[in-house]
Design the sequence.
């Protein structure tokens, strides 16, 4: 019955032409859609719309061209409604999925993004201003072979107990090359991603160590991975540890072994490339 009533309503709208008078090219152009933004910000969120909305206003102050993509991964309706209400700009997008987690959702969003540089973010991230964005753009322009840039502590990896483990590196200066970085923020050079990397490795789905994998893969393809200090702080407890502790523990073991199987024979070469890149700074 509802479908029938809606059909009658739409038929009347078509005959009267009321709906056709509401939209035209000038109306669309006035929105200011930018198909070639410099930066794309991508958020992964689950039931943390308040936190995301808090930082959205800060991101809008970035003076460069930008687009914002928020991945709503299985949030309750109240959070989805709040996000939809906040994302009103011409370059704002809301992607809805059902508990697919980071490997799948980030991959889809990255391939959708039009920004030259993409910042993968999480729903507990916070920051004071937008200088961390300007710095990242500067570094990408300075190092054109850098595919990944992390704003947190960089890490080396070592083989132990049949798995690869992260070993935090001591920061040397405001910028350095490292084996791996983790989210967030985790920046991606979109052109290099499209040309060489293409996708997240779905062997690591639904979550964990996929960020390490894409970093190590970058080095094997002749690309570089860097780290700088974005000076992020946490707004709240991280969602993975808040709602998915058991899954995270299982995936840490499973994907640690997978990472080892894929890269243990290449770690010496990768570390040499990291050292050579740092010597050239």
Sequence:
């Amino acid at each position: 019955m509802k479908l029938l009533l809606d059909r009658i309503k739409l038929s009347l709208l078509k005959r009267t032409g009321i709906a056709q008078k509401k939209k035209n090219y000038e109306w669309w152009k006035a929105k200011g859609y930018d198909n070639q933004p410099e930066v794309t910000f991508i958020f992964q969120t689950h039931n943390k719309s308040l936190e995301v909305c808090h930082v959205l206003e800060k991101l809008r102050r970035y003076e460069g061209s930008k687009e914002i993509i928020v991945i709503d991964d299985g949030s309750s309706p109240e959070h989805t409604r709040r996000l939809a209400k906040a994302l009103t700009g011409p370059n704002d997008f809301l992607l809805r999925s059902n508990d697919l987690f980071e490997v799948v959702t980030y991959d889809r969003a990255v391939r959708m993004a039009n920004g030259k540089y993409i910042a993968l973010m999480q729903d507990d991230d916070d920051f004071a201003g937008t200088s961390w964005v300007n710095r990242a753009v500067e570094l990408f322009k300075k190092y054109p072979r850098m595919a990944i840039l992390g704003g947190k502590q960089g890490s080396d990896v070592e083989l132990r107990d049949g798995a690869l483990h992260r070993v935090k590196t001591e920061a040397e200066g405001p910028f350095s090359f490292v084996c791996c970085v983790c989210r967030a923020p985790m920046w991606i050079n979109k052109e290099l991603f499209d040309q060489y990397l293409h996708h997240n490795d779905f062997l690591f789905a639904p979550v964990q160590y996929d960020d390490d994998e894409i970093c190590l893969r970058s080095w094997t393809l002749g690309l570089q991975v860097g780290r700088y200090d974005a000076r992020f702080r946490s707004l709240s407890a991280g969602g993975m540890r808040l709602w998915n502790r058991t899954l995270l523990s299982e995936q840490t073991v499973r994907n640690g072994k997978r990472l080892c199987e894929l890269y243990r024979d290449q770690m010496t070469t990768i570390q040499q490339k990291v050292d050579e890149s740092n010597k050239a700074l």
